[in-house]
Amino acid sequence: MVLVSGSGTNLQALIDACEDPAYGARIVAVGADRDGIEGLHRAERHGIPTFVERVADHPDRAAWDVALAEDVAAHDPDLVVLAGFMKLTGPAFLARFGGRTVNTHPALSPAFPGMHGPRDALAYGVKITGATLFVVDEGVDTGPIVAQVAVPVEDDDDVETLHERIKTRERAMLVEWVGRMAREPFEIDGRRIRFHPKDPR
Ligand code: GRF
Q: Do 70 and 21 have their domain in common?
């Protein structure tokens, strides 16, 4: 299950990866918090079921969160991937899918959390930034880290060129580690993800 809010290039990378049976995962559905986005069109073009759950259709965020959790549960996913999903999931969602929901953030956590990772990295003047795949918790980009990739900041970068460079690496990271999480048992031990918990040697 993948949730998106925008162009869906991360989703597309996962769709492409899933075409190889050896990848070991299948996208059961794609959900969004808004209509008319390319992310949903990508899913539709590949025959993947979609749904939209808009905050504006609910009295408050808590009610939206319950509805989103219901939508996701209807597809019975093993793993939920937030791929450019620009909303925070809430307590009702995490009660059902905590520990098996991952998000990707275009910065090297714990630096530059929030909606503007590339902009904030550029403004700070860092020379290396990157992307972080993490298990979603109740904070903003704070959960246990699954993987990170480093990306150089070039002198002539603007937010767009930097974000595009990050996204190229981010997509590869997402494909590699989501595949691993789909194929191999894992457990969350404090802030660490441990794979193969049943296979010590
Ligand atoms: C990604 O960089 C993601 O980390 C950020 O927004 C971007 C989404 O891109 N939150 P896309 O919709 O997958 O193309």
A: yes
Pocket test for ligand 1, best of 132, 170, 174, 175 (most atoms within 8 A of CB): 170
To the query of whether residue 105 is one of the catalytic residues in this protein, the response is: yes
Q: How far is the CA of 164 from the centre of ligand 1 (A)?
A: 9
Per-residue model confidence (pLDDT) at position 196 = 84
Torsion of CA 194, 71, 85, 3, to 10 degrees: 70
Distance, in Å, from the CA atom of 109 to the CA atom of 145, rounded to the nearest integer, reads 8
The string of pLDDT tens digits covering residues 68-101 is: 999 999 999 999 999 999 999 999 999 999 999 9
Given the residues 46, 58, 75, 105, select the one marked as catalytic.
Answer: 105
What CA–CA distance (Å, rounded) separates 96 from 79? 11
Q: Which atom of ligand 1 is nearest to the CA of 10?
A: 13
- Give the pLDDT confidence score for residue 201 in this predicted structure: 54
**Domain containing residue 45:** 1-97
